[in-house]
Amino acid sequence: MITFKPVALFGLLAGIIMSLGSLTVVANHDSGSSIAKRISAVGRICVEGQSCKAPVAEVIEVAAGPRTGESVYASGCAACHDSGAAGAPMLGDVAAWSPRLDKGIDKLFSNAWFGYNSMPAKGMCKRCSEDEIRDAIIHLVDNSK
Ligand code: HEC
Q1: Which residue, of 64, 82, 104, is where some domain finishes?
Q2: Cα(95) to centroid(ligand 1), Å
Q3: Based on the domain organization, do 96 and 134 belong to the same domain?
Q4: What's the gap in Å between 35 CA and the centre of ligand 1?
Q5: In terms of residue numbers, what domain contains 41?
Q6: Does residue 76 sit in the same domain as residue 58?
Q7: Of 2-16, 80-94, 121-135, which range is least confident?
Q8: How many CA atoms within 13 Å lie on the side-chain side of 50?
């Protein structure tokens, strides 16, 4: 996501410089809206099969694809499951996880997705997909057996 920012910034700067150039040298033959169009065309990244009308941030998020269970875990779940905060069963704590594993992955998933006692829904990762939460749980329990 970060890697595309300089491109958008460069496009913006290039657009401004180009528009300044045309305003001063070629006596304003660019209308404001054509300048805006040029800037947005450079700053936008389109994914094949998409209309290219979504804002840049959304398009890049789609292009980035789903995150791995490990990265979802690290960026959210770890805050509680690495520290035991709020009484969370910790990663690697076999004794704490073994009775939970007996519930089966589907039950663990629905408890993580909808929330369960002090376990907040989706582990507070609002934008996480079902697959991302499921993969994060798999990462958690695979390292706690
Ligand atoms: C704010 C702290 C917190 C965060 C963040 C958090 N958890 Fe939890 N989680 C808990 C607590 C506390 C429990 C224990 C709930 C209980 O058994 O009463 C728990 C329990 C669980 C369980 C076991 C549920 C069961 O049925 O026994 C799973 C699976 C789980 N968390 C997955 C995740 C995943 C995946 C994430 C990240 C997407 C996450 N958690 C983020 C606090 C957290």
Answers
A1: 64
A2: 15
A3: yes
A4: 50
A5: 2-64
A6: no
A7: 2-16
A8: 16
Q: What is the pLDDT of residues 32-85, one digit of tens each?
A: 666 666 655 555 566 676 666 655 554 444 556 789 999 999 999 999 999 999
CATH code where residue 94 lies: 1.10.760.10
Same domain flag for 60 and 117 = no
Whether residues 86 and 54 share a domain: the answer is: no
Query: How many angstroms does the Cα of residue 2 sit away from the middle of ligand 1?
Result: 29
Ligand 1 close to Cβ of residue 119 (< 6 A)? yes
Q: How far is CA 26 from the centre of its chain?
A: 44
CA distance 111 to 89: 14
> pLDDT tens, 111-132?
999 999 999 999 999 999 999 9
Q: Are residues 136 and 75 both part of a single domain?
A: yes
pTM greater than 0.85 (yes/no): no
Phi-psi region of 81 (alpha: psi -120 to 50; beta: other; left: phi over 0): alpha
* Residue whose tokens read 């305003």: 23
For the chain, what is the domain count?
Answer: 2
Q: What amino acid is encoded at 123 in this protein?
A: G
Pocket test for ligand 1, best of 68, 70, 71, 81 (most atoms within 8 A of CB): 81
